[in-house]
Amino acid sequence: MKKCEYECAFSFSVSSDEELQKISVLIQDLFDNSIITSIPKVFDKRRCETTFCSKFYAFAKGQGHALSREEVKKSFEDSWGDKAWTFVTSLRGPREVVQSKLRYIEEKLNDMATLRVIDRQLLKDTPVETLQEKLQIQFDHLVLDYLQGIPSNDALMSSYWDLCDFDETPEQPEAKDYAFLYITPLFPNKPSDIEGYMSIYKEVCERFSVSPAMTLNFLNRNSIEAVITVSFDKKNPFIVKKTHHFKDELLKSLALKGYLPYRLDVASMSKFFEETIEQTAWESFSLKIKKALDPDELLAPKRYSSR
Fold first, then answer.
1. pTM for the full predicted model
2. How confident is the model over 222-239, as pLDDT tens digits?
3. Number of Cβ atoms within 10 Å of the Cβ of 237
4. What residues contact residue 86 under an 8 Å CB cut-off, 6+ apart?
5. Closest Cα partner for 222 from 195, 198, 187, 255?
6. Which run of H or E residues covers position 13?
């Protein structure tokens, strides 16, 4: 396979859900004009916080700086400010084509956000002196690795940041007493649906006093997949029950508006179908497909169905 001539990542941030809705229209334009071909990812501030803080804490300790969790959190707040959503994706191709695409994106952004370009050569040539500058280089490499699909344990570390003791082994925190779960609804890439989804999401989070981290994956010009991560203490029966109740209520509230999960854990399947999905047209439709393809019900009986 011919090696790609040039590759870079780019990012920008906005400070409100209303601006996120404008970004969704921009993303449609970028897909329509073949400016981007990889999946754009939009991280909420909570996702950025847990990723930044866990990375900074481990990196600082490795550099001989014993920072407290409070100092790390303050560093994040100082650097992130009011950024509510951060967009990241990559571009590949001949250098002049990529540069032309970046100019197009910058023009489309206008005054809404500042475009930031990340490439490995640029990182290599950037002078660094302070711990914060060194961390930024590490963080930028993390972004590039993530977009290129290079495996790391950074996502796991960020999921455990709120609960685990990172002091003894910051690169691999002790996590045997903790767990996390994913909730993965789908919804249309339209400003009205983003507003509807966020309204439900925020209401359920507030009702349960839960602060998940979330990534929005723009699968194509029309569809968004939300990846919501909730960490919890599995030693505490009350917290375990509350977390799963939160998951069930969020799935139900979203499904009743037409925002269905693209995937469910085994424990959630029967409950979701019995309590929620029968109130929609999805189960009857999916059962028709199942019956046509598997009339003898040999494949995964009752999976994604209550019957």
1. 0.88
2. 999 999 999 898 888 999
3. 9
4. 11, 12, 13, 42, 43, 45, 48
5. 187
6. strand 6-14
